[in-house]
Amino acid sequence: MRVALVGGSLLALLIIGGCGGSDDGDSTADPASACKALVKELCSKFYGCYSDDELAAASTAVGNNETDCRTKLEGEDCGAEQLKCDSGKKYNSDKASECLSQEKSLSCSEFKNSATATPAACDQVCQ
After folding, report:
1. Which of 2, 10, 17, 96, CA to CA, is 20 to 30 A from 80?
2. Backbone torsions φ then ψ of 126, nearest 5 degrees
3. Which residues contact 72 (CB under 8 A, 6 or more apart)?
4. How many distinct structural domains can be found in the chain?
5. pLDDT at res. 23
6. pLDDT interval class at 49 (50, 70, 90)
7. Which helix (DSSP H) or strand (DSSP E) does residue 120 occupy?
8. d(CA 36, CA 32)
9. pTM for this model (two decimals)
10. Do the Cβ atoms of 86 and 48 come closer than 8 Å?
11. At what angle do helices 31-49 and 93-105 cross, to 10 degrees?
12. How is 53-92 classified by DSSP, letter by letter?
């Protein structure tokens, strides 16, 4: 199930470096904003692509509703420690933007498939 991938795409972007604040929630200018934007997209996909039964089974990972999902994932994955790139690497906002764009373009079947759920750009946000 895709729930395990919350740690995939999200970790990619958060480790890549992103979760903070922007007015529209889609900024990738900095790691904090990028994380928030990806969390917003992931939670939207979870609650748009999974059945009520699937969501109930995954509620400990994705919360009880989309807002709860965002609060939960931002709290777990968008802190300063989670957003740091590995030593010698730095955050690339262009790759973060590409990651978010690719995540948004995933169909539900792609989102639910662990083989296609993490866009390639998400693994390149820290370079």
Report:
1. 2
2. -105, 120
3. 62, 63
4. 1
5. 41
6. very high
7. none
8. 6
9. 0.80
10. no
11. 10
12. HHHHHTHHHH-SSHHHHHHHHHHHH-STTTTPPPTT--B-
10 has a pLDDT exceeding 60: no
How far is Cα 111 from Cα 2, in angstroms, rounded to an integer?
7
Tokens (6 digits) for 36 = 């928030």
* pLDDT number for residue 74: 95
Question: Identity (one letter) of the amino acid at 92?
Answer: N
Which residues contact residue 115 at a Cβ distance below 8 angstroms, ignoring those fewer than 6 apart?
A: none
Instruction: Give the residue numbers spanning the domain of 76.
Output: 3-124
Please give the pLDDT value at position 52.
95
Task: Supply the mean pLDDT for the chain.
Answer: 84
Beta bridge partners of 32: 19
State the average pLDDT over residues 104-126.
94
Residue type, 86: D
Q: Are 34 and 93 in contact (CB under 8 A)?
A: yes
